[in-house]
Amino acid sequence: MEQPSRLAGTVRPGGRTARVRAAVLEATQDELVERGFHGLTMDQVAVRAGVGKTTVYRRWGSPAGLVVDLMTELADQSVPHADTGALEGDLLANALSVLEALHDGRLGPTLQAMIAAATCDEQAAQGLRAFYSRRIQEWAGAVDLAVKRGELPEGTDGAEVIRAISAPLYYRLVVSREPVTREDAERSVARTLAAARAGAFVSPG
Questions:
Q1: What tens digit of pLDDT does each residue of 33-54 get?
Q2: Which residue in 53, 94, 150, 185 has the fewest CB atoms around it within 10 Å?
Q3: Do 16-74 and 83-197 come out as alike in CATH topology?
Q4: Is the pLDDT of residue 79 over 80?
Q5: In sequence order, which ranges of 104-181 are alpha helices (DSSP H)?
Q6: Residue extents of the structural domains in the chain
Q7: pLDDT value at 74 more than 50
Q8: Count of beta carbons in the 10 Å neighbourhood of residue 24
Q9: What does pTM read for this prediction?
Q10: Which CB contacts under 8 angstroms, 24+ apart, belong to 24-27?
Q11: CATH of domain 83-197
């Protein structure tokens, strides 16, 4: 799920409001990388962004509100799914984009902090679900194209295929705390592709 590691381009037309949001989200990501979610404070984000504390509290309300808006911004900036002309190439592109994100010195810690936030805050959990739902649905389009080309059975659930690609990688990162390698990504693609071709992801009915 390809996303930028830094919030480049967050300043959009809209004057001061857009500039304030960009500065606050940049500061939020900086704080998440350095301190994690449990170390994220509204006051420190305000200081780092050079914005009044009242503005930050009024607009975002809580650290979870900052995280949710940051996830929205990262999702908005992510690029479309790959279209290599073959499903295997598209799935490998997806797996490698996940691998790149997890290894990125800035985005990797940001994602881990977001996941940590979601385990203890329902607002953050809803934001995380929305974030990944957008990315999964985007990449599911590559699977839909493969179905149209006849590479997979009719009725294949593209979103489930994409989840199956990234699930082993996130398990290693978050649960077992093991290194996540290119070999892991390639293995996940091979196994998911074999299962998809066998009809394992065809929706009932």
A1: 899 888 999 999 999 999 999 9
A2: 150
A3: no
A4: no
A5: 107-118, 122-149, 158-170
A6: 16-74, 83-197
A7: yes
A8: 25
A9: 0.81
A10: 24/49, 24/51, 24/56, 24/59, 24/60, 24/66, 25/66, 25/69, 25/70, 25/73
A11: 1.10.357.10
Residue 32 tokens read as 């998440």
- Long-range pairs for 202-205 at CB < 8 Å and ≥24 separation? 202/153, 202/154, 202/155, 202/156, 202/157, 203/155, 203/156, 203/157
CATH architecture of 16-74: Orthogonal Bundle (1.10)
Between the alpha carbon of residue 29 and those of residues 41, 68, 113, 114, 185, the distances in Å are 12, 11, 9, 10, 26
Distance CA 124, CA 82 (A): 28
- Residue 7 pLDDT: 52
DSSP 3-state of 86: coil
Looking up tokens 């902090």 gives 113
Structure tokens at 144: 């839909």
- The C-alpha atoms of residue 27 and residue 41 are separated, in whole angstroms, by 11
